From TrEMBL:
Its EC number is 1.5.1.7. GO terms for molecular function: saccharopine dehydrogenase (NAD+, L-lysine-forming) activity. Pfam families: Sacchrp_dh_NADP (PF03435). The keyword 4Fe-4S does not apply. This is Saccharopine dehydrogenase. The keyword Oxidoreductase applies. It comes from Saccharopolyspora erythraea (strain ATCC 11635 / DSM 40517 / JCM 4748 / NBRC 13426 / NCIMB 8594 / NRRL 2338).
Length: 349
């Protein structure tokens, strides 16, 4: 059976499609804009479909005869639910590239529905979660009684429209962390620390990131904070209250997203090829013992395209039991080692 990329005319969807073609695959391309989808699919000789996610009947028709859909059309806060619902109705495996905490929680809540439908729901199949989730599982295995998990990344090479729009929505919601097993709202930038990335030690600052949801499902560790090394992020706490209120205004969201559409296009091949990302994970137990690990990956978008295709292949091969999964619960902590040019620095205690 065929598999589909929904949002194939977007930045990451295009990268997934191009990489699939280079590997001899012929996915069905899809989206809601017929002109844009046709313009991308036709020169490549790929089949395509167009349907709007607001129409359940159209979603069902669009997913007919599809085995797996790679959902790449964000912001996922607006687009994930109708695709998940369509997949459950039609018996289609669902994969997306979200990093949005609320989306993870909503998808994980459909675990039993997915089991009954015989489908896999796997959000976060890209950079946002795959490397951190796999590292989290590694350090949790090295320190089974861990009570705290810190996850951090630094990434170079630019950013796409979809990623920025999701970040804009997330900033309006404030910080999030897992505390005593519960997701709680905290100030933006509420914690900072030094992290020994493979290239150098860096100061990182907390931000709301998908692993606040997914890493708990993967490891059971009750206290989880996610961090990034980004210019200016260390000052987030100074304006978090006012900034959150301003960013939450509907007009600010509309204007911000319009500006992103106008001025942001995403990094080109040369910039992606010249950049890389680093991830660090550290688990700590109640006695103060710790286990840590790190990894180096290609540019986040190239990593995501490779990861999505390997997830698709694994689902088509029947490697994963039905239900809602994180990358590591689906394929194991070593899944990240399958990905192109990714180097894992083993857990240390």
């Amino acid at each position: 059976m065929a598999w589909m990329i929904y949002g194939a005319n977007g930045y990451t969807g295009r990268l997934v499609a191009e990489l699939a073609l280079s590997r001899g695959e012929r996915p069905v391309l899809a989206g809601r804009d017929a002109e844009k989808i046709a313009a991308f699919a036709t020169p490549r000789g790929l089949p395509y479909r167009t349907f709007d996610l607001s129409d359940p009947d159209a979603v069902d028709a669009g997913l007919r005869d599809i085995e797996v859909v790679a959902h790449c059309a964000g912001p996922f806060s607006a687009t994930s639910a109708p695709v998940v619902e369509g997949c459950l109705r039609g018996g289609v495996h669902y994969v997306d590239i979200t990093g949005e905490i609320d989306v993870f929680e909503a998808v994980f809540a459909r675990h039993e529905d997915a089991r009954r439908a015989g489908v896999v729901l796997l959000p976060g199949a890209g950079f946002d979660v795959v490397p951190t989730d796999c590292l989290a599982a590694m350090v949790a295995a090295a320190l089974p009684d861990a009570t705290q998990l810190d996850l951090a990344f630094q990434a170079g090479g630019g950013i796409s429209r979809g990623t920025l729009k999701s970040a804009l929505e997330g900033a309006a919601m404030g910080g999030k962390a897992r505390i005593d097993g519960e997701i709680r709202t905290v100030p933006m930038g509420w914690r900072s620390r030094e992290v020994p990335f493979p290239s150098a030690q860096r100061r990182v600052t907390s931000l709301p990131w998908g692993d606040v949801s997914s890493a708990y499902r993967s490891t059971g560790i009750p206290n989880i904070t996610t961090f990034a090394h980004l210019p200016g992020l260390d000052k987030a706490g100074k304006w978090s209250g006012l900034g959150q209120r301003i960013l939450g205004l509907p007009i600010v969201q509309r204007l911000g997203k319009a500006a992103i559409d106008t001025f942001v296009s995403g990094p080109g091949p040369r910039r992606r090829a010249g950049s890389w990302s680093e991830v660090f994970a550290e688990a700590t137990d109640a006695s103060g013992r710790s286990a840590s690990a790190a990894l180096i990956t290609p540019n986040t978008y190239d990593f995501t395209a490779d990861s999505v295709l390997r997830v698709i292949s694994g689902l088509q091969a029947g490697e994963v039991e039905a239900g809602a999964h994180t990358p590591s619960t689906a394929f194991g902590a070593d899944f990240v080692r399958r990905l192109h040019a990714t180097k894992v620095i083993e857990p240390a205690r």
